Amino acid sequence: MSATPSRALLPRRLLSAVCIAALGISLAGCASKGRLTTGSIPSMNKPLETMNAAELHSAADTIGRAYDKNPKDASVGMKYASVLTMGGRSEQALAVMQQVAIHNPTDRAVLAAYGKALAGAGQLEKALDAIQRAQTPDRPDWQLLSAEGAIHDQLGDPATARARYRKALDLQPNESSILSNLGMSYVLQGDLKTAESYLASAIRQPGADSRVRQNLALVVGLQGRFDEAEKIASAEISAEQASANITYLRAMLTQQNAWNKLKDT
User: Fold this and answer.
1) Where is average pLDDT lowest: 220-224, 229-233, 253-257?
2) Rounded CA gap, 10 and 255, in Å?
């Protein structure tokens, strides 16, 4: 076997390792609008995606107590699972969503969040089934289409993923989270310029959140523009956290000369 294919594999593996988490975060937003803004959920003083490990642990404890009081409450259960996922406790998040889904078997938002938890635990085929069962052909949900696209990307099927994203954009034009997912789809295939174009468009849309900005910072950093990436990231998270993120990215890209191989690809 020639050396050329193996030289291309390392960057793709690197991109996958860096970006799967970002796609997972995009999935996390699929059931977050409207349903999760009830008075039964303890209020947080900052967005989950900007919390550090200690803050996420504290948030999980707080929301966990509310969940213990009423595990049938779909809103609390979904929020609890989301916090657990952000804190790296994917298996526990899945267990929570399994219970919530048992108590709310026809709730589309619950099925979508259950699919997200399955994806976070690496059970992608089951996640896809849950998302598709939540969808209805007569009233398609753009958030579910976008979530389905993210799962197809993780399954290595970018063509189907992008078809789902574009259907979602037909229903919700210029939606930042869809554009972000579409951009990350191109990152996974090594097309960083196209990815940056979609993500730059995404952060200009009303309602674009920190996750979208951090995805753009990631893509800019992957192209070696580390100072610019740090500036983008620090617009919404602390300068210390942004610097730590970029330092980590630099370290990943220097492993086994991955940065030069990424440029070659």
Assistant:
1) 253-257
2) 10
